[in-house]
From TrEMBL:
Its main location: nucleus. GO terms for cellular component: nucleus. SUPFAM superfamilies: Ribonuclease H-like. Residues 613-627 have a biased composition (Polar residues). Keywords: Metal-binding, Nucleus, Transcription, Transcription regulation, Zinc, Zinc-finger. It comes from Folsomia candida (Springtail). It is found in: Nucleus. This is Putative AC transposase. It comes from the Eukaryota.
Length: 646
């Protein structure tokens, strides 16, 4: 019996040693795509694995951590093939590596075919027929992704017109949205004649600075008196649900007799074009009409857009519409008799070198020795003073080379020293005027920058000692006085908060405080439909103290454009900002606002009064803009009044 018991105990010990323990592998055991989801691993040394299927329970070796036997068992016995399964990285919890498509390495096309065609026809001036006839253009558009480019010019025209209607609808909605929030606008309009001798009226609506909408051309049939012109503009605005009485602050026109009458009939303010005024002032001095009539000064159709100098004798034979129209009107203009001898001699020399390749080659040899490059002589257009500046400036620059070339070609056309000095005087007098016109025609121009540019021009002319500069200064002052309104003074006052009258030209002065107060009140009452019960201000009634501001005399540098830009930037420096406080009456509100605007904010917290009837303030009126110039290329800004609710 003892022997049997010992044998039994030995057998139990052996069985306890031979039965290993197994466990489920963490994490891997919960993954259905893992081999350990189907097997348990030995606890002791992990050299074996046990199938989890209760009907199988087979123990397999995993020597060295190899699981190939386990996969073979699953595939052959249980028909589960984990090795051939198409594993999805997202199902396995592994983040797939992002690979950029090839299209990401190229600039994506953001423009539609309609927008591209409209831009190329309107901005680049490409005719519709070129899109159907030009192989290179079609290939370029096709490479840009526009494979459905029509082959018919008529179809392309329909696409462009349809896109323009879509843009107009969007812009009209934008204008209506601005009106709903209380925005005000200004209008620029002018008459234009095509090469077919058809007359049109172009109307442009202006919002805040550098924001405008071209409302299109209006065909003119028959005569165009002031009443008819104003009615045409009003009808065009009515399409946008705008009215001259309530939505338009100012109209900007040229200074012809019809336009000045329109200004008297219109319920809005009127600003005459400064650029046209300068043009007329220069013509008053440099040119004269052979058969001058009393109405001659009223004509303001001179072309201001063609600032590029003419390079040959065919300058005046341009195919552009404006050149065709102006040709007949300016053909009776001739250079003044005091300047004509010198200018005619310069034109003779320029023509001689331009018409002879041999003589021009001799001239260019000397020019290259002096300047290191070729500089061609420029021939002016006889009725364009800006081209006269370019011709004389180039001639005076290369005068030394011209003298040498004239000796080599044995020409008798020599200029004396006093004639060269005369040329220098003409260039020095006209260059500031040219720079001023370019500043006036900028899209970001307003009445403040216009005053700065015009004052810069007058100061430059006054600093010169030549008789021509003095004559131009007198003529330009006259033209500026005809066009500068009290709006310019109001704009300057709202920007600076001071009466800058010391050391300033009279034509650029700010109106008296009573006039400024009355002007602000009239603008608010007209645009808001309000009636001020306070009596009209009388001289000496206001308590506003007139204080002279700092001097604005500038130091001048050689580069006129750089100097003028610096002067404009200085004028547009930050203006004082003030809080808004209501008062009982609109007139007293304006008076109080003006007083605090000049003195600062120190008095604003001392008093708080109610303002029951007039929910307006003049403080945001300093955001107003009026365009100082009028050109067909839309180089204008706008006068805009913005009244903020208290």
């Amino acid at each position: 019996m003892a022997v049997v018991a010992a044998a039994t105990n030995e057998e139990l010990d052996k069985s306890s040693k031979t039965v290993p323990k197994y466990f489920q592998v963490p994490q891997q055991g919960l993954n259905k795509d893992s081999i350990w989801n189907y097997f348990l691993k030995e606890v002791a040394d992990g050299k074996t694995a046990k199938c989890m299927d209760t009907s199988c329970q087979k123990v397999l070796k995993t020597a060295g951590g190899s699981t190939s036997g386990l996969n073979t068992h699953l595939r052959s016995i249980h028909h589960i093939d984990l090795l051939k399964k198409d594993l999805n990285p997202s199902e396995l919890g592994v983040k797939a590596k992002s690979v950029k498509p090839i299209s990401d390495f190229f600039e994506k096309k953001t423009k539609s075919l309609e927008e591209t065609l409209a831009r190329m026809t309107a901005k680049d001036g490409i005719p519709f027929s070129v899109f159907s006839t030009s192989t290179d253009l079609r290939r370029a558009l096709k490479s840009d992704g526009f494979t459905d480019l029509p082959k018919s010019a008529h179809t392309i025209k329909k696409i462009v017109i349809g896109y323009s209607q879509k843009i107009k609808s969007t812009e009209n909605e934008h204008v209506l949205d601005l009106k709903r929030i209380g925005r005000k606008f200004s209008v620029t309009f002018d008459e234009w004649s095509s090469i077919k001798n058809r007359r049109y009226m172009n109307v442009i609506l202006h919002g805040k600075p550098q924001e405008f909408w071209n409302l299109g051309l209006i065909r003119i049939h028959g005569s165009l008196p002031a009443e008819k012109c104003l009615e045409m503009v009003a009808n065009k605005l009515r399409l946008l649900n705008l009215s001259l009485e309530n939505d338009i602050v100012c109209i900007i026109t040229d200074g012809s007799s019809v336009m000045t009458k329109i200004g008297r009939l219109s319920p809005t303010y009127q600003q005459l074009c400064f650029a046209h005024g300068i043009q007329l002032g220069v013509l008053d001095v440099l040119y004269k009409k052979i058969n001058q009539t009393p109405e001659a000064d009223e004509s303001e159709n001179e072309n201001l857009d063609n600032l590029a100098p003419c390079e040959d004798d065919s300058c005046c034979d341009s195919d552009s519409d404006s050149e065709e129209i102006d040709e007949d009107e300016d053909e009776d203009l001739v250079i003044s008799h005091t300047l004509r001898p010198v200018i005619d001699k310069v034109r003779t020399i320029v023509r001689m070198f331009r018409r002879s390749p041999l003589k021009n080659e001799i001239l260019q040899t000397y020019i290259k020795q002096e300047f290191g490059k070729e500089l061609s002589l420029i021939l002016d257009c006889k009725t364009r003073w800006n081209s006269l500046v370019a011709m004389l400036e180039r001639f005076y620059t290369v005068q030394a080379s011209i003298k040498k070339a004239l000796v080599d070609v044995r020409s008798d056309a020599h200029l004396k020293d006093w004639e060269l000095a005369r040329i220098s005087d003409i260039v020095d007098a006209l260059k500031p005027i040219e720079a001023t016109i370019e500043a006036l025609c900028r899209r970001d121009a307003n009445l403040l920058t216009a005053d700065t540019a015009l004052n810069f021009m007058i100061q430059k002319l006054d600093m010169q000692q030549s008789g021509l500069a003095l004559e131009l200064g007198v003529a330009l002052r006259t033209r500026i006085e005809e066009r500068r309104t009290e709006l310019s003074g109001l704009f300057k006052y709202l920007h600076t908060g001071q009466y800058i009258n010391s050391e300033q030209d009279e034509i650029f002065s700010i109106p008296k405080p009573t006039k400024i107060c009355s002007l602000i009140r009239n603008i608010i009452c007209r645009l808001r439909g309000m009636n001020d019960d306070a009596s009209e201000l009388q001289e000496g009634e206001t308590n506003i103290i007139e204080k002279p501001g700092p001097s604005q005399v500038k130091k001048f540098k050689s580069d006129l454009t750089t100097e003028l830009n610096k002067a404009i930037s200085a004028a547009l420096s930050s203006s004082p900002l003030h809080k808004v406080q209501p008062e009982k009456s609109l007139t007293t509100t304006i008076k109080k606002e003006m007083k605090l605007f000049e003195d600062g904010d120190s008095d604003r917290d001392e008093e708080a009064v109610t303002f029951p009837q007039h929910p307006t303030s003049t403080n945001n009126l300093q955001n107003a803009h009026v365009s100082p110039s009028l050109t067909p290329r839309l180089k204008t800004s706008v006068y805009k009044t913005k009244i903020a609710a208290v």
